[in-house]
Amino acid sequence: MAKIDRAGFGTKIGAVLAAAGSAVGLGNIWRFPFETGNHGGAAFILIYLGCVLFMGIPIMIAEFVIGSRSRANAARSYRVLAPGTQWHWVGRMGILAGFLILSYYSVVAGWTLEFIFEAVTNSFAGKSPADFIASFNGFVGDPWRPAICLLLFMLATHFVIVRGVEKGIEKSSNILMPVLFVLLLLLAVCSVSLPGAMNGLKFLLEPDFSKVDGNVLLGAMGQAFFSLSLGLGCLGTYASYFRSDTNLPKTAFNVAWIDTGVAVLAGFIIFPAAFSVGIQPDAGPSLIFITLPNVFQQAFGNLTWLAILLSVMFYVLLALAALTSTISQHEMVTAYLHEEFNMTRKKAAWLVTGGSFVLGLFCSLSLGVGKDYTIFGLTLFDLFDFVTAKIMLPAGGLCISIFVGWYLDKKIVWEAISNNGTFRLYKVVIFILKFFAPIAIAFIFINELGLIR
Ligand code: PHE
């Protein structure tokens, strides 16, 4: 049998930052704004915040319990905690979700490399909003450039994975997250002070509940799971590397507020700018890529060196934030193959890299030359996004709440969730896991996916 070299996080803060590194990424800066734009703004955001608080945080604690008490990969953890049952299928579904997300997420992560290149070469200079849209569409429609970016990004992820968990992930998360936060804050201030930014602020802050339907609920719930890296066992895999005295509820709260803070900040960057330059908020996945260059251009256009410096910094940090997320997706699949199929970590990592590159390539092409081939009316890229974020992750969350709320040994659950009696909201978390989260997720599914008409 291949030697299983399970890694561990050196320090507690390192573990928290790595989990936050998994959570913070394109989900916050790319997906949150476009989903908010698609679903009408402020009301979506409020529902999203409700989902984070009343589903996301308790389910994250539950995932931490599963990972930290089993010390195993996503599928094996159920076999350790519930031997002889079928619960391990929840872990398997999560691993599949992680693999699918890795494939299409890396496509967008690759786009950030193109934008680093454009920022370095000062190609944003002198372009109008319409030019930015045209050049983005030209790039995504090209069969080669996005594919090369995807390949480079996959290789970067692969490289960190084979160097091991502690050295690779922890080191990078420690420095980069705080820098990213400060830069986002600066950009938000710039964006809000652009002419006509008020309408963007209104879009963000004035809820119109008449537009809320099942689709908005499903969107907000899916976004919460996606952004918090929840429901697939990814954070559980990280928790299996936590030190045994890690305070799980506190870690979950910290990860959730950092993640939500970054998403809301991204909203304050994108919408004021989009309204200011006349870009539609429901432009979809292209939203940040056609809006942000305008911010650099409008706010710093006559100070070329500053525009270049800040835009390069931004896209580098965005790429790195995406990298700490792809690492976590890759790691959960690699850990599974390595530990379950008797293969070396290196071989497992190559399989994951190769497989997700091929799938990612199809996703990438489905936005350009293949855009006429649709499945259920969706391109392959959109289908992967829909099936993972809006179905597989919430379904995983539903199973995880039931597993920890109802099935798992009460003593283990009490010790872990109450942090040996020090966490006072223990009963609230248990109530949510037992009743609220499963019922709410099932309700949203039934309501929106047309299971009952
Ligand atoms: N949460 C990550 C982000 O916001 C994406 C992700 C999803 C990472 C699922 C891991 C697992 O970018």
Summarize the model shown.
The protein has helices at 12-23, 26-38, 42-70, 74-81, 88-120, 129-141, 145-163, 165-192, 198-205, 214-227, 234-239, 248-277, 287-300, 304-340, 345-365, 380-407, 410-417, 426-448.
Order of helices and strands: HHHHHHHHHHHHHHHHHH
- The rounded Rg comes to 21 Å
> In one word, what is the shape?
globular
Mean pLDDT: 91
User: From the helix content, strand content and strand pairing, which structural class follows?
Assistant: mainly alpha
Distance between the termini: 52 Å
Work out the strand percent: under 5%
* Contiguous uncertain segments of 5+ residues: none
Characterization of the model:
This protein has helices spanning 12-23, 26-38, 42-70, 74-81, 88-120, 129-141, 145-163, 165-192, 198-205, 214-227, 234-239, 248-277, 287-300, 304-340, 345-365, 380-407, 410-417, 426-448. The protein is an all-alpha fold. It is globular and about 65 Å long. The model has no long low-confidence stretch (mean pLDDT 91). Bound molecules: phenylalanine.
